[in-house]
Protein backbone atom coordinates (compact mmCIF):
# COMPACT_ATOMS: atom_id res chain seq x y z
CA UNK A 1 0.00 0.00 0.00
CA UNK A 2 1.18 3.55 -0.74
CA UNK A 3 2.28 5.51 2.30
CA UNK A 4 2.31 9.22 3.12
CA UNK A 5 5.56 10.54 4.58
CA UNK A 6 6.51 13.82 6.18
CA UNK A 7 9.41 15.63 4.47
CA UNK A 8 11.99 14.68 7.10
CA UNK A 9 11.09 11.01 7.45
CA UNK A 10 13.48 8.18 6.58
CA UNK A 11 12.53 5.21 4.39
CA UNK A 12 14.12 2.06 3.01
CA UNK A 13 13.00 1.75 -0.58
CA UNK A 14 13.85 -0.82 -3.21
CA UNK A 15 15.86 0.62 -6.11
CA UNK A 16 15.39 1.83 -8.76
CA UNK A 17 13.57 4.81 -7.24
CA UNK A 18 12.13 7.64 -9.33
CA UNK A 19 10.86 10.97 -8.00
CA UNK A 20 8.13 13.32 -9.17
CA UNK A 21 8.29 16.84 -7.76
CA UNK A 22 4.87 18.54 -7.61
CA UNK A 23 2.60 15.58 -8.54
CA UNK A 24 -0.70 17.55 -8.39
CA UNK A 25 -3.58 15.06 -8.81
CA UNK A 26 -1.11 12.19 -9.22
CA UNK A 27 -1.98 11.46 -12.89
CA UNK A 28 1.61 10.75 -13.91
CA UNK A 29 2.38 8.60 -10.86
CA UNK A 30 -0.77 6.59 -11.47
CA UNK A 31 0.22 5.87 -15.06
CA UNK A 32 3.92 5.10 -14.63
CA UNK A 33 3.52 3.05 -11.45
CA UNK A 34 1.25 0.61 -13.29
CA UNK A 35 3.44 0.57 -16.42
CA UNK A 36 6.61 -0.14 -14.38
CA UNK A 37 5.70 -2.23 -11.33
CA UNK A 38 9.40 -3.01 -10.62
CA UNK A 39 10.19 0.72 -10.11
CA UNK A 40 9.55 2.49 -6.80
CA UNK A 41 7.96 5.92 -7.23
CA UNK A 42 8.15 8.77 -4.75
CA UNK A 43 6.09 11.92 -5.22
CA UNK A 44 6.53 15.12 -3.25
CA UNK A 45 3.98 17.94 -3.18
CA UNK A 46 3.54 20.69 -0.63
CA UNK A 47 -0.21 21.08 -1.11
CA UNK A 48 -2.36 19.10 1.31
CA UNK A 49 -5.17 19.09 -1.31
CA UNK A 50 -2.85 17.43 -3.85
CA UNK A 51 -1.75 14.80 -1.34
CA UNK A 52 -5.36 14.04 -0.36
CA UNK A 53 -6.57 13.74 -3.95
CA UNK A 54 -3.56 11.77 -5.21
CA UNK A 55 -3.59 9.40 -2.23
CA UNK A 56 -7.23 8.46 -2.93
CA UNK A 57 -6.19 7.26 -6.39
CA UNK A 58 -2.84 5.76 -5.45
CA UNK A 59 -3.31 4.19 -2.03
CA UNK A 60 -3.62 0.63 -3.40
CA UNK A 61 -0.32 0.93 -5.27
CA UNK A 62 2.54 -0.90 -3.56
CA UNK A 63 5.24 0.93 -5.50
CA UNK A 64 4.16 4.55 -4.80
CA UNK A 65 5.02 6.72 -1.79
CA UNK A 66 3.82 10.27 -1.31
CA UNK A 67 5.58 12.98 0.65
CA UNK A 68 3.58 15.93 1.94
CA UNK A 69 6.11 18.74 2.03
CA UNK A 70 8.21 21.23 0.19
CA UNK A 71 10.72 19.83 -2.32
CA UNK A 72 13.64 21.71 -0.69
CA UNK A 73 12.80 20.35 2.76
CA UNK A 74 12.39 16.84 1.41
CA UNK A 75 15.61 16.84 -0.60
CA UNK A 76 17.58 18.19 2.37
CA UNK A 77 16.09 16.08 5.15
CA UNK A 78 13.94 13.23 3.82
CA UNK A 79 14.72 9.61 2.85
CA UNK A 80 18.41 10.44 3.19
CA UNK A 81 19.64 7.02 2.02
CA UNK A 82 17.63 7.00 -1.18
CA UNK A 83 19.32 8.05 -4.43
CA UNK A 84 16.91 8.81 -7.23
CA UNK A 85 17.51 7.32 -10.63
CA UNK A 86 15.12 9.63 -12.50
CA UNK A 87 13.40 12.86 -11.46
CA UNK A 88 10.40 14.48 -13.16
CA UNK A 89 8.94 17.90 -12.62
CA UNK A 90 5.89 18.39 -14.82
CA UNK A 91 4.52 21.88 -15.30
CA UNK A 92 6.03 23.37 -12.13
CA UNK A 93 4.85 26.87 -11.20
CA UNK A 94 6.96 29.15 -13.44
CA UNK A 95 6.59 32.31 -11.27
CA UNK A 96 7.08 34.59 -14.31
CA UNK A 97 7.27 37.91 -12.42
CA UNK A 98 10.75 39.16 -11.54
CA UNK A 99 9.80 39.81 -7.92
CA UNK A 100 8.77 36.13 -7.55
CA UNK A 101 11.92 34.55 -9.02
CA UNK A 102 12.98 33.56 -5.50
CA UNK A 103 10.04 31.14 -5.37
CA UNK A 104 11.06 29.17 -8.47
CA UNK A 105 12.48 25.69 -8.07
CA UNK A 106 15.46 24.70 -10.25
CA UNK A 107 17.73 27.57 -9.37
CA UNK A 108 21.45 26.77 -9.18
CA UNK A 109 21.33 25.62 -5.54
CA UNK A 110 18.40 23.34 -6.30
CA UNK A 111 20.44 21.55 -8.99
CA UNK A 112 23.36 21.24 -6.59
CA UNK A 113 21.10 19.73 -3.96
CA UNK A 114 19.57 17.40 -6.57
CA UNK A 115 23.06 16.18 -7.47
CA UNK A 116 23.47 14.94 -3.88
CA UNK A 117 20.16 13.09 -3.96
CA UNK A 118 20.52 11.39 -7.35
CA UNK A 119 22.64 8.44 -8.45
CA UNK A 120 25.25 8.17 -11.17
CA UNK A 121 23.90 9.04 -14.64
CA UNK A 122 20.55 10.04 -13.18
CA UNK A 123 18.22 11.96 -15.52
CA UNK A 124 16.05 14.92 -14.58
CA UNK A 125 13.22 16.12 -16.84
CA UNK A 126 11.72 19.56 -16.33
CA UNK A 127 8.63 19.94 -18.51
CA UNK A 128 6.62 23.12 -19.06
CA UNK A 129 4.58 25.11 -21.55
CA UNK A 130 6.73 28.12 -20.55
CA UNK A 131 9.86 28.01 -22.69
CA UNK A 132 11.55 30.81 -20.73
CA UNK A 133 11.23 28.74 -17.55
CA UNK A 134 12.65 25.56 -19.10
CA UNK A 135 15.59 27.53 -20.49
CA UNK A 136 16.14 29.23 -17.15
CA UNK A 137 16.17 25.87 -15.34
CA UNK A 138 18.55 24.45 -17.97
CA UNK A 139 21.00 27.37 -17.69
CA UNK A 140 21.08 26.98 -13.91
CA UNK A 141 21.81 23.26 -14.26
CA UNK A 142 24.80 23.97 -16.53
CA UNK A 143 26.01 26.75 -14.22
CA UNK A 144 26.03 24.33 -11.28
CA UNK A 145 28.71 22.36 -13.17
CA UNK A 146 27.31 18.93 -12.35
CA UNK A 147 24.62 18.46 -14.99
CA UNK A 148 24.68 18.24 -18.75
CA UNK A 149 21.77 18.02 -21.21
CA UNK A 150 19.51 19.74 -23.71
CA UNK A 151 16.30 21.69 -24.16
CA UNK A 152 13.75 20.77 -26.80
CA UNK A 153 10.11 20.97 -27.71
CA UNK A 154 8.60 17.61 -26.84
CA UNK A 155 5.90 15.45 -28.35
CA UNK A 156 6.02 13.16 -25.29
CA UNK A 157 2.79 13.28 -23.36
CA UNK A 158 2.68 12.83 -19.60
CA UNK A 159 -1.11 12.82 -19.20
CA UNK A 160 -1.37 15.40 -16.40
CA UNK A 161 -4.08 17.96 -15.71
CA UNK A 162 -1.87 20.93 -16.52
CA UNK A 163 -0.61 19.34 -19.70
CA UNK A 164 -4.20 18.89 -20.97
CA UNK A 165 -5.05 22.45 -19.95
CA UNK A 166 -2.18 23.98 -21.94
CA UNK A 167 -2.55 21.67 -24.96
CA UNK A 168 -6.27 22.56 -25.20
CA UNK A 169 -5.22 26.19 -25.37
CA UNK A 170 -2.93 25.34 -28.28
CA UNK A 171 0.30 25.76 -26.34
CA UNK A 172 3.49 23.83 -27.02
CA UNK A 173 5.38 21.77 -24.47
CA UNK A 174 9.13 22.10 -23.80
CA UNK A 175 11.47 20.01 -21.75
CA UNK A 176 14.95 20.27 -20.30
CA UNK A 177 16.60 16.89 -19.88
CA UNK A 178 19.69 16.86 -17.69
CA UNK A 179 22.10 14.03 -16.96
CA UNK A 180 24.08 14.07 -13.74
CA UNK A 181 27.83 14.32 -14.30
CA UNK A 182 29.03 14.41 -10.70
CA UNK A 183 28.14 15.45 -7.18
CA UNK A 184 28.13 19.23 -6.66
CA UNK A 185 29.72 21.06 -3.80
CA UNK A 186 26.65 21.82 -1.69
CA UNK A 187 26.30 21.56 2.06
CA UNK A 188 22.96 20.55 3.53
CA UNK A 189 22.75 22.77 6.64
CA UNK A 190 21.98 19.88 9.02
CA UNK A 191 23.01 20.23 12.66
CA UNK A 192 22.63 18.21 15.85
CA UNK A 193 20.39 20.46 17.96
CA UNK A 194 21.45 21.33 21.53
CA UNK A 195 18.79 22.67 23.88
CA UNK A 196 20.19 25.64 25.81
CA UNK A 197 20.03 25.60 29.63
CA UNK A 198 20.26 28.65 31.85
CA UNK A 199 19.82 29.49 35.49
CA UNK A 200 17.11 32.12 35.50
CA UNK A 201 14.87 34.16 33.25
CA UNK A 202 15.51 37.85 33.73
CA UNK A 203 13.49 39.20 30.79
CA UNK A 204 11.17 38.11 28.01
CA UNK A 205 12.30 38.37 24.38
CA UNK A 206 10.74 41.38 22.70
CA UNK A 207 8.53 40.94 19.66
CA UNK A 208 10.30 41.77 16.41
CA UNK A 209 12.93 40.56 13.96
CA UNK A 210 16.47 39.59 14.98
CA UNK A 211 19.21 39.05 12.36
CA UNK A 212 21.11 35.75 12.51
CA UNK A 213 24.31 34.79 10.66
CA UNK A 214 22.42 33.14 7.78
CA UNK A 215 18.82 34.19 8.36
CA UNK A 216 16.32 35.85 10.65
CA UNK A 217 14.42 35.09 13.83
CA UNK A 218 11.06 36.77 14.02
CA UNK A 219 9.39 36.66 17.45
CA UNK A 220 5.61 36.88 17.02
CA UNK A 221 4.15 36.28 20.50
CA UNK A 222 5.27 35.43 24.00
CA UNK A 223 3.06 33.79 26.63
CA UNK A 224 4.08 33.17 30.24
CA UNK A 225 2.21 30.67 32.43
CA UNK A 226 0.50 32.00 35.57
CA UNK A 227 2.98 30.12 37.76
CA UNK A 228 5.85 31.61 35.74
CA UNK A 229 7.40 28.19 35.10
CA UNK A 230 6.65 27.93 31.37
CA UNK A 231 7.19 30.34 28.53
CA UNK A 232 5.83 29.85 25.02
CA UNK A 233 7.38 31.82 22.18
CA UNK A 234 5.74 31.80 18.76
CA UNK A 235 8.39 32.51 16.12
CA UNK A 236 9.44 32.12 12.52
CA UNK A 237 13.05 31.34 11.62
CA UNK A 238 13.98 31.90 7.99
CA UNK A 239 17.14 30.88 6.17
CA UNK A 240 17.98 30.24 2.50
CA UNK A 241 15.40 27.78 1.10
CA UNK A 242 13.86 26.90 4.49
CA UNK A 243 11.22 28.37 6.77
CA UNK A 244 10.78 27.08 10.31
CA UNK A 245 7.47 27.84 12.07
CA UNK A 246 8.31 27.23 15.69
CA UNK A 247 6.76 27.40 19.12
CA UNK A 248 9.75 27.48 21.46
CA UNK A 249 8.99 26.28 24.97
CA UNK A 250 11.03 27.35 27.96
CA UNK A 251 10.36 25.34 31.10
CA UNK A 252 11.74 25.44 34.59
CA UNK A 253 13.30 22.28 36.02
CA UNK A 254 15.00 21.63 39.36
CA UNK A 255 18.31 22.36 37.55
CA UNK A 256 17.22 25.66 35.96
CA UNK A 257 15.59 26.49 32.62
CA UNK A 258 15.62 24.57 29.31
CA UNK A 259 14.55 25.96 25.94
CA UNK A 260 13.33 23.64 23.15
CA UNK A 261 11.27 23.78 19.98
CA UNK A 262 7.90 22.21 20.79
CA UNK A 263 6.82 19.06 18.96
CA UNK A 264 3.89 20.96 17.52
CA UNK A 265 6.26 23.10 15.50
CA UNK A 266 7.45 22.64 11.97
CA UNK A 267 11.22 22.89 12.07
CA UNK A 268 14.34 21.24 10.72
CA UNK A 269 17.60 20.69 12.61
CA UNK A 270 19.87 23.35 11.12
CA UNK A 271 22.65 25.64 12.35
CA UNK A 272 20.34 28.64 11.90
CA UNK A 273 17.67 27.09 14.12
CA UNK A 274 20.37 26.42 16.73
CA UNK A 275 21.45 30.03 16.48
CA UNK A 276 17.85 31.16 17.06
CA UNK A 277 17.58 28.91 20.15
CA UNK A 278 20.87 30.25 21.54
CA UNK A 279 19.90 33.85 20.88
CA UNK A 280 16.54 33.47 22.65
CA UNK A 281 18.20 31.77 25.62
CA UNK A 282 20.80 34.56 25.82
CA UNK A 283 18.08 37.23 25.70
CA UNK A 284 16.04 35.47 28.39
CA UNK A 285 18.89 34.97 30.82
CA UNK A 286 20.28 38.47 30.22
CA UNK A 287 23.55 37.39 28.56
CA UNK A 288 22.54 39.57 25.60
CA UNK A 289 20.25 42.53 25.25
CA UNK A 290 18.51 43.67 22.12
CA UNK A 291 20.24 46.65 20.64
C1 LIG B 1 1.08 23.67 -11.68
S1 LIG B 1 0.89 22.30 -10.64
C2 LIG B 1 1.31 20.93 -11.69
C3 LIG B 1 0.76 19.62 -11.18
C4 LIG B 1 1.02 18.38 -12.06
N1 LIG B 1 2.44 18.09 -12.18
C5 LIG B 1 0.40 18.56 -13.41
O1 LIG B 1 1.16 18.62 -14.41
O2 LIG B 1 -0.83 18.61 -13.49
C6 LIG B 1 2.33 22.45 -9.58
C7 LIG B 1 2.30 21.50 -8.40
O3 LIG B 1 3.56 21.62 -7.72
C8 LIG B 1 3.34 21.74 -6.32
N2 LIG B 1 4.47 22.54 -5.79
C9 LIG B 1 4.77 23.82 -6.04
N3 LIG B 1 5.90 24.19 -5.41
C10 LIG B 1 6.34 23.11 -4.74
C11 LIG B 1 7.44 22.84 -3.88
N4 LIG B 1 8.34 23.80 -3.61
N5 LIG B 1 7.57 21.62 -3.35
C12 LIG B 1 6.65 20.65 -3.62
N6 LIG B 1 5.58 20.83 -4.42
C13 LIG B 1 5.43 22.04 -4.98
C14 LIG B 1 1.99 22.43 -6.20
O4 LIG B 1 1.39 22.17 -4.95
C15 LIG B 1 1.23 21.81 -7.36
O5 LIG B 1 0.59 20.61 -6.99
Provide an overview of this structure.
This protein is elongated. It has 291 residues and is of the alpha/beta class. The chain is built from seven helices and 14 strands. Bound molecules: S-adenosylmethionine.
Main sheet summary? 8 strands, mixed
Radius of gyration: 22 Å
Structural class: alpha/beta
Number of domains: 2
Essential attributes:
eight-stranded mixed beta sheet; single chain; 2 domains; alpha/beta; Rossmann fold; binds S-adenosylmethionine; 291 residues; elongated
Task: Briefly say what this structure is.
The protein is α/β, with parallel strands linked by helices.
Per-chain topology:
Elements: E1 3-5, E2 17-21, H1 27-35, E3 40-45, H2 48-58, E4 64-68, H3 71-77, E5 84-90, H4 108-117, E6 118-128, H5 131-144, E7 147-153, H6 161-168, E8 174-180, E9 197-198, E10 208-212, E11 215-224, E12 230-239, E13 242-253, E14 256-261, H7 271-285
Parallel strand pairs: 1-4, 2-3, 2-5, 3-4, 5-6
Antiparallel strand pairs: 6-8, 7-8, 9-14, 10-11, 11-12, 12-13, 13-14
Helix pairs in contact: 4-5
Bound molecules: S-adenosylmethionine.
Amino acid sequence: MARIYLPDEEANLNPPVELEIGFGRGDFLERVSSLHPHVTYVGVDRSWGSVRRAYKRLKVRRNVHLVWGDAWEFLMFGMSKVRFHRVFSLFPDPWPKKKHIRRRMFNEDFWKLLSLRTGENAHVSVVSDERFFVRWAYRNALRSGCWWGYVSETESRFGTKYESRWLEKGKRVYQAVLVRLSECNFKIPRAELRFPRFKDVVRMPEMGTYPLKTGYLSVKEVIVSREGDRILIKAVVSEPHLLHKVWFVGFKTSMGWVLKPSEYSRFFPTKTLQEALDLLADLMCGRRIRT
